[in-house]
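Report of the visiting student (M.T.), summer placement. My assignment was to run the structure pipeline on a short list of targets and document each run. The first record concerns ABC transporter ATP-binding protein.
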Amino acid sequence: MTTLYQEEQSESVSAQTGETLVEVDDLKTYYGSEGGLLGGKPVKAVDGVNFDVHRGETLGLVGESGCGKSTLGRTLMQLENATAGEVRYDGTDITTLSGSDLKQWRQNVQMVFQDPDSSLNGRMTVGEIIMEPLNVHNWKTPQERRQRVRELLDTVGLSEEHYYRYPFQFSGGQKQRVGIARALALEPDFIVLDEPVSALDVSVQAKVLNLLDDLQEEFGLTYLLIAHDLSVVEHICDRVAVMYLGNIMEIGPVDDIFDDPANPYTQSLLSAIPEPDPNAEKNRMTLRGTPPSPRDPPTGCVFSTRCPSKIRPEQYRDIDDDVWEGIEIFREVLRERGDVTKSVRERVRDLLGMETRGMDVEEVIDDAFGELDVPSDVQQHVDEAVEHVERDDLQSAQETLRDEFGSVCESEEPETLPVGDTGRTSRCHRHREEYESSQAYLTDHFQ
Ligand code: ADP
Ligand code: MG
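After the run finished, the C-alpha cells were exported:
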C-alpha cells in the first residue's frame, strides 16, 4: 500500500491503523472437486483471490448473486474448507488449523447471516441463543455468562426483558440484533456480515447499519460486509472489493470505485444502479446474456464473454460498434446454447424464458445484425459459423468465431494491476500499456 493510501485510511473514523489483519493469498474454494456431479467438474465458487483486510476497516464485498461472496466469507471463517491458497489471520495460516487450535482461533471471528429466521434456533430463548458461543467455549462461570448476555442485549439496543422470549416474538430488525449480540459474545476482532440487512425493511436497515457502525467504533471491530445493495456499501465501507465469477475484479477505496470505476465489470455493475431521478441522463449499460457457469468459467478474463469493453483484434479495432455488438450477441447465443453444465431442467426453463434458445439461427443473425452494413470479411466468417450451426456443430461454429474475433481477453488471464496511487488494483488487460491506445471505445461507452 502506498503512503498516500495509509494517510487516507487514518483519517477515516473506523480504520484506526493501516495494519493488516487478514491476508488472503490465491484462495480457491471449489465445491464437488471430489468428483461425481457432471463428470467431476467442480463449482469454482472462489477461484484465486488475493486481498488484505486492514484492522479496523469495513471492507465491502459486492457482486451479482452466485459470484461467490458467501463462499468467500465462509472460507475466511473456516466454515468452508479452502481448496487451495492461504488465509493468514494475524500472520497464522488458518486453513491448516484443526481440533483445539481451530476452536481457539474461532473465538476471534464471527459471522452474521442474512436471514435471522434460519440462523436463529427457534426453539431456544434469545438468552440461550446469545449464550451459546459462551457455553461452547466454556467462558467463565454460568453466572458471569448470564450477566454477559444481559450486557449484550443492552449493547445491541434490546432490553433485559427480552432474555426469556423466543425469536418468533421479535421483528426482523430485533432478530438481527440478536444475531449481532451472539456474534459479539466472545469479543471477536473480525466479523463477516453476509447481507445483514437485505431481509429487513428499509427503515430498519438504517438502524441496524448505524448499530453496526457504533459497535465497530466502540469495540475496534473489523468488518467484511457482503452486500448486493451498492448504496449500503457506498455509505459505510472504507474500501470495496468487486467480485465476478469467483474472482476479485477491482478493489480499492470506496470513493475511487464509486466515482471512477476502473474495471469494465465495476462500470457495468454501477451503471445498473437506478438513478434517484428517473429523468437523469445516464448512459445505462445492460449486460449481455447471463453469467457463465462457475463450473465452466471462460478462458482468459472471466468477464470476457459479457464485457462491453472487450479488446478487439487489431483488424477490427475500427469496426462499427453495432456490428461488433452483433458478433458478440451471436457468440453469446452460441455459448448459452452450448452450455454443457446446465441440467435438462435448466435448459427447459431457459428455453421458456429466453427466446434465443429456441430460435432458428437465421433469426438470431437477423436479430444481431438487422439492417446493419456488415463488412464482407465479417460477413464471411459469420456465414461460415452459421453453416456449422446448421450442421448442428456448435463447437466448430464457436471456434470459427473465436479464431477470427477472439482477443487477448479470451486467451490470457489478466493480471491484477495498480490503478492510480490510492492502493487500488484492477484485473483487466486494458490497464496494460500496449492496450491503452484502445481505450477510446471504453471511454465512449462510459461517458
Ligand atoms: P453469492 O453469495 O455471491 O450469491 P455463493 O458463494 O453462495 O454466491 O455461491 C457461489 C457459487 O457456488 C454458486 O454457483 C452456488 O450455486 C455454488 N454453491 C454455493 N454453495 C454450494 C454448495 N454447498 N455446494 C455446491 N455449490 C455451491
Ligand atoms: Mg450469498
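The chain has 20 helices and twelve strands. The first strand starts at residue 20 and ends at 31. I thank the supervising group for their guidance throughout the placement.
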